[in-house]
Design goal:
Elements (H helix, E strand, L loop, with lengths): L25 E7 L8 E5 L2 E7 L6 E5 L13 E3 L2 E3 L6 E2 L5 E3 L14 E2 L1 E4 L2 E6 L27 E7 L16 H5 L1 E11 L2 E10 L9 E8 L3 E10 L2 E15 L2 E10 L7 H26 L17 H8 L17 E4 L2
Antiparallel strand pairs: 1-11, 2-3, 3-4, 4-9, 5-6, 6-7, 7-8, 10-11, 12-18, 13-14, 13-19, 14-15, 15-16, 16-17, 17-18
Amino acid sequence: MNQPVRAPRKPHVIVADPMPVRYARGWHVLDKASEFNTTPRMFEAFGQRLAAYRGDIDGKVHVLDAYCPHMGADLSKGHVHEDSLVCPFHGWRWGADGVCNHIPYAARIPEKAVIGSWPVLEENGLLFVWNDPEGNPPIAAQRPARMEDCFSGEWTDWTMTQVPIDSNCRELVDNMADMAHFGPVHYSRVKRFVNIQDGHRYIQEMQGGHEILEDGATGMSTTAIYEGPAYMTTTMTGSLYGHPVTVHLLVSHYPVHMDRFIINFGVMMKKDPALSEAVNQDMVAKYTEMSVASFIQDVEIWNNKVRVGNPVLCEGDGPINMVRKWYSQFYMDAADVPAELVKRKQHVTL
């Protein structure tokens, strides 16, 4: 008996609309706060060059546009005088507010002698910078929550690793909803997977196990929270060397430009009071090594994948479209964000 001839199935055509050049509104971590002193540092971020330094008088970190509008020198190659940044080319001084306050060979300072000054925040041992395409000040309700563990003395300091990714930073947020990648990429066994959107926060709750980061007996539980577009912390419980451990992981990024971003990957571990300081430090170093090895598996994917605006999804993939819609709020003007993107919503995949 002849079988009916089926029409050939057409391949799915990947669509990814061009993205406008725009960087997300919100707080971004540049590095540990302790890494900033009176020696200026240069950062390529948000499609431009920035200069970051700690004032010699006020002791605060300041971030300014790096290029001097006088003759174009890089201010990050200059030096700090009191709380101002001095241009290495002609000695013009730029205050923390971005206003030129001294020219060594002129009595009158031009009205146009102003550069960009970026809002900054030191919290949880980290240095945050605020970006807003509209130029508005930081939104008070979106200030990163204080982590009391950072100040208790019962936890190690952040161990930080910087990881460059050659992709658009919006690819990163898919991981919050992508339950199916944990097995093939991270060797994790997922038993429970929940996503929650709530205003500027997005939460992933997961229970399961990991072939590298736990011994299989105690299991592993994680709660990952995005606060805004670029600051994500994860609290993870598991075991190491047969000892139960609790760690905080940091995955915070800032865009270099539209097709490259830097991830600040950090690890903090709660100290075991029964162990010496040296052993506790050895444990956090080992856990960091294994965590970075696990995280690098994602990096290989990001560096080689293509952006897909119309993914072919199946049951069990997780709420990819939900997290993408939630994330889009940070790329809109603040007045245009619809209520649907910020109202509390929960999705249980498993």
